[in-house]
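Q: I'm building a small set of examples for a reading group on sequence design. Run inverse folding on the following structure and report the sequence directly after it, with nothing in between.
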């Protein structure tokens, strides 16, 4: 019976590892910009909204190729090792209206990690900027934003 349970535990872990989702937000700036992009591998739906209320939500099904591209951004555990917060630099005024804030929440299997940063943050990992670029590229290519 133990070998059956071990097999079921391994299969459950593999299935759980295949679950992948993220939520990316971008807000602030001079024009009070707002952008929300989310994806859930269970539904294969990618969603984008440029309104906080979500009233102008656009949904599309992500291709397997696009999903693999996004998953590739999180290969290994590098993203999960990023700091949770990369604050704006000391020279940024608290009421600086040109500051854009970014948040990326990623779930892979049973691992969840949130990273927050701004366009004025110092020492942001290059990979974080590349991930943001890839997410925006995919929704832009699908004419969602």
């Amino acid at each position: 019976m133990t070998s059956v349970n071990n097999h079921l535990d391994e299969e459950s872990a593999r299935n759980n590892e295949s679950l992948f989702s993220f939520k990316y937000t971008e807000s602030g700036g001079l024009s009070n910009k707002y952008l929300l992009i989310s994806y859930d591998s269970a539904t294969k739906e990618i969603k984008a909204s440029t309104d906080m209320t979500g009233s102008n939500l656009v949904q599309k099904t992500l291709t397997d190729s696009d999903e693999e591209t996004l998953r590739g951004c999180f290969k290994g555990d590098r993203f999960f090792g990023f700091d949770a917060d990369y604050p704006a630099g000391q020279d940024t005024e608290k009421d600086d209206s040109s500051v854009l804030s970014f948040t990326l929440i990623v779930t892979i299997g049973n691992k969840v990690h949130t990273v927050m940063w701004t366009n004025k943050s110092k020492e942001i990992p290059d990979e974080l900027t590349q991930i943001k670029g890839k997410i925006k590229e995919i929704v832009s290519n699908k004419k969602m934003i």
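The domain at 19-141 is CATH 3.30.1560.10 (Mago nashi protein).
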